Amino acid sequence: MKRNMLKDYKEQIQDADLVLVGIGRELRADRVIDFKKAITNEHYQNLIDKEDEDSKWMRTVYEREYLLSMKETDLFKELEEVLEGKEYFVVTSNDDGLLYHTHLKKDHVTAPCGNGDFFQCSAPCDEQLYPANLGLRDLIDYYEKTGKIEYLECPKCGKQLIFNVRTEETKSIYIEGAYLNSWASYTKWLQNTLNKKLFILELGEGFEVPSLFRWPFEKMAFYNEKATFVRVHHSLYQIGKEIKEKGIGIKMDSRDFLNIAHE
């Protein structure tokens, strides 16, 4: 039978010296959490079908507040189980911070596109970051008391504060300071992968940010003679002919590959 689930690779993962995991947009929070069911607050529920920009912003405020206040989740339980006892690192292109609420080792996760923990100036007038949790709660309390949707202002220049996340719209103004320490740990970890038996698992990454780990993973698989490469995506699963002997592309939604329930 053709291998097509994470558990089918458990033996290979356990046999590897090191495991490198990339987690992409197929596994972002809004694809593994049904916010409509998770956030029962009536004020949020009243925003669900509204498509004006203010309502979209307020929905995002509720969802970010929900994610930041989450306790540990078992959504990635199967991945956690196969990585147990292994030396691994996880890099994600998602900006929802969800992985920091799993049982994965927090100091072995890096999220270069942000994680929703901070606001930044939309100008930006400087490199300052502002903790998001208090601001989110203030916005929610004000909306629930008055019915009015507000935005936060930069205390230095008065411009609107935005989430410190890298998107197509914000990539030119994205302040990178929040993730640099974890990225330094990641690059240091990568230096130890040469000539090691390396299992590379890429989950759900299309071409949103290919330079983050899609292309680097291919390069690592090519140059490391002991590498094994598995790429999972519902449509962009193909791998180059240069690494076909070392890898496999699996045409599957990464949620199914990890056995994450979804509708």
Protein topology:
Elements lengths: L9 H6 L2 E6 L5 H4 L2 H4 L3 H4 L7 H16 L8 H7 L3 E6 L16 E2 L7 E4 L7 E3 H15 L14 E3 L16 H11 L7 E6 L10 H10 L4 E6 L13 E5 L2 H4 L6
Parallel strand pairs: 1-2, 1-7, 2-3, 7-8, 8-9
Antiparallel strand pairs: 4-5, 4-6
Helix pairs in contact: 5-7
Number of helices: 10
Instruction: Report the top-level CATH class of the largest domain.
Output: Alpha Beta
pLDDT < 50 runs, ≥5 residues: none
Provide mean pLDDT, rounded: 95
- Under CATH, the topology of the largest domain can be stated as Rossmann fold
Specify the overall morphology: globular
CATH superfamily of the largest domain: TPP-binding domain
Number of strands: 9
Rg estimate, integer Å = 20 Å
Neighbour order of strands in the largest sheet: 3-2-1-7-8-9
Order of helix and strand elements from N to C terminus? HEHHHHHEEEEHEHEHEEH
Provide a compact summary of the structure.
This protein is α/β, with parallel strands linked by helices. Helices cover 31% and strands 16% of the residues.
Question: What does this protein look like?
Answer:
With 263 residues, the chain is α/β, with parallel strands linked by helices. It has two domains: 1-33 and 75-116 and 168-263, Rossmann fold, CATH 3.40.50; 34-72 and 118-163, no CATH class. Helix content is 31%, strand content 16%. The protein has ten helices and nine strands. The chain has helices at residues 10-15, 29-32, 35-38, 42-45, 53-68, 77-83, 132-146, 180-190, 214-223, 254-257, and strands at 18-23, 87-92, 109-110, 118-121, 129-131, 161-163, 198-203, 228-233, 247-251. Strands 3-2-1-7-8-9 form a six-stranded parallel sheet, with helices on one face. Strands 5-4-6 form a three-stranded antiparallel sheet. Strand 7, helix 9 (214-223) and strand 8 (228-233) form a beta-alpha-beta unit. Helix 5 crosses helix 7. The two termini are 26 Å apart. InterPro entries: DHS-like_NAD/FAD-binding_dom (IPR029035). It comes from Anaerostipes hadrus. This is Deacetylase sirtuin-type domain-containing protein.
